[in-house]
Amino acid sequence: MTTKIRAAIRLATPAHEMAQEEILKQVAYLSKEIADPCFDPGGTMLEFDAPTDSADALGRGVEELARRVQRGLRGLQRRVAYRSSAAERPTFLGDGEVPGLHRLGPGQVALEGLTLQLFRYFDRVFEEFGRAWDARPVLTPTLIPTGALAKCDYFRSFPNVVTFACHLPEDPARVEDFRARHYDRQDLDDRALADLETPEACLSPAVCYHVYHLNSGRVVPSGGLTYGVSGKCFRYESSNLSDLRRLWDFTMREVVFLGGREQVLALREQSIERMGRFLEEHRLAGEIRTASDPFFIAPEAVAKAYFQLSSETKFEISLMLPDDARLAVGSHNYHTDFFGRAFDVRLDDGGLMHSVCVAFGLERWVHAFLTQHGVDARRWPEVVRSAREFQ
Fold this sequence. Notes:
Blueprint: E1 4-10, H1 17-27, E2 35-39, E3 45-51, H2 55-73, E4 80-83, E5 101-105, E6 108-111, H3 113-129, E7 136-139, E8 143-145, H4 146-151, H5 154-157, E9 163-165, H6 172-181, H7 192-195, E10 201-203, H8 208-214, E11 219-220, E12 225-234, E13 249-259, H9 261-281, E14 286-290, H10 301-311, E15 314-320, E16 326-334, H11 338-342, E17 346-347, E18 354-361, H12 362-373, H13 382-385
Parallel strand pairs: 7-12, 11-17
Antiparallel strand pairs: 1-3, 2-3, 4-14, 5-6, 8-10, 9-10, 12-13, 13-18, 14-15, 15-16, 16-18
Helix pairs in contact: 1-2, 2-10, 3-12
């Protein structure tokens, strides 16, 4: 049996809040053996669980990662676009228990009862959120072609979270061999991966990618286009997988704006303003603030994070949890003309399309809401308590 210890790395200089966030995003991808990483209140000590016999080696990797992130993000300041009134004195009525939640596998859950009702509430209100801009509803597939995902730069930026969809080849002998080997097994054997074809598709990590793909080679009219999209998303997050806060299989609802630069940025500002009012109406403690995506731990990852944070291309909706923790439940992302170039989507004046995606992670909203407001619906904000999902 493998024994574990609580390892601790003392940093040469304290990590500021943004550096701590980036380090914790990436540290799990150093090794699956690293678990439960966290900083002390001063940002000087980084602790994590690790096997006793590999803790020293893992600690050296963690220390180098922390040093690289701190060096890349030094001097950077986070901008807060909105801070809710409840954030001044947050309260947490939840005890960490989520009724009706069933863990069925790593990062895989089933919901029922009150939690499912709350999930359906957020699904509905965020669908209605897009109606202010006459968002065009689109039903997208769960699978996305590997070629389309490559155009989204996913294999270069986030290869660590990709979930590949594989199948056996059209070869009766190989299929029969696979079947015979697994006739009495309760799991896959160590030869199974070699039996599979090179993946032609992946499980989609974001539903907005389908919008750019379906507009490949098209021209966006002068008034722009707005889509309302929802679907299942899949991101493998190693030992970061937990409860509703971080799932492998989760649900996103998104509003996607396509158009010119000034046009989509103005729409993003409108959405941020509306989200501020939403936080107030739901008495949720949190901020809308600059953030970055969880890039892979390659050398350019810190530079990409620095660009996102300094250029304010990503604003996350960050809700408060106990012990000074945060949970990003949504985001407002400006992609410049990246997807216009990648999929050859142009404006009617000949320029490249710019895009903004407003995304909501439904399970995360459920977790943050229950953490702040508890499971006694009588104590919930009136707008939720009186919603049709609870009648």
